[in-house]
Amino acid sequence: MTAQILDGKAVAEQVRKQVAEAVAARVAAGKPRPGLATVLVGDNPASQVYVSSKQKACAEVGIESFGHKLPATATQEEVESLVRSLNEDPRVNGILVQLPLPSHLIEEDVLKAISIEKDVDGFHPMNIGRLAQKGRDPLFIPCTPAGVMYLLEQTLPKLEGLNAVVLGRSNIVGMPVALLLVRANATVTICHSRTKDLPSVVRQADVLVAAVGKAEMVRGDWVKPGAVVVDVGINRVDDPSKPRGYRLVGDVAYDEVAQVASWITPVPGGVGPMTIAMLLQNTLRAAELADGKM
Ligand code: GUN
Asked: Which of 36, 101, 168, 237 is least enclosed, having the fewest CB within 10 Å?
């Protein structure tokens, strides 16, 4: 079997177009443009790249962005006080504090300081708690997990009763993806570094979401024929033949797994573009929530 490609870049493009149209309609109706504030603490090069791509994507769909940078030495109080001032700013509908934060800062307290109506990353403990509870709904779903589910829906509109395996249990991806799969009535297994006989557990998956951050860890013979494979990993591996000296690969050995799976996301061009598209969608939603309050 040769897998079909779940093209995140193309799907993200459609979502961005829808967001751009909705923003234009808001503006034509005399409503304010949605606004996203980004908070970058320190100078982690990957975080700088992510934040600037988020700001660029905002500009392309007509969302205003307000970039805030604090030095790596910023105190807990400085970061929280910036967040509180953004909570009060009516031009700001969404607040995104780029993670990871420098290690002296208490991430949970910073995330808790964000007003839940502006929590477009969905990482506030209240939003995550609601995601985990039956009969409750978060105001926002974290962007990468939402992007994974959106892609799955393109090929598997009904996940009910399927075996889903999530590789990785991070706060940003693995755990919220697993919660979303449970909400979609899949039977969910979360694997991690202590899982025994990982290949045989992964082989049970009708749907596999790999989010461990280990280059090409999932091999072809780990995957059930016909499975749908979503690869969240973005890992650099040395490659002297490339101008930058490296190339990007996922957590899945693409060439091998593509021989076995029915659908697979590429890296790059799979989940990555969906994260940003979901952030734009969440920011638009935050602006709509704010309309109701004016
Ligand atoms: N770091 C890695 N992914 C994310 C994300 O989706 N949001 C934020 N705020 N930080 C991240």
From this structure: 237
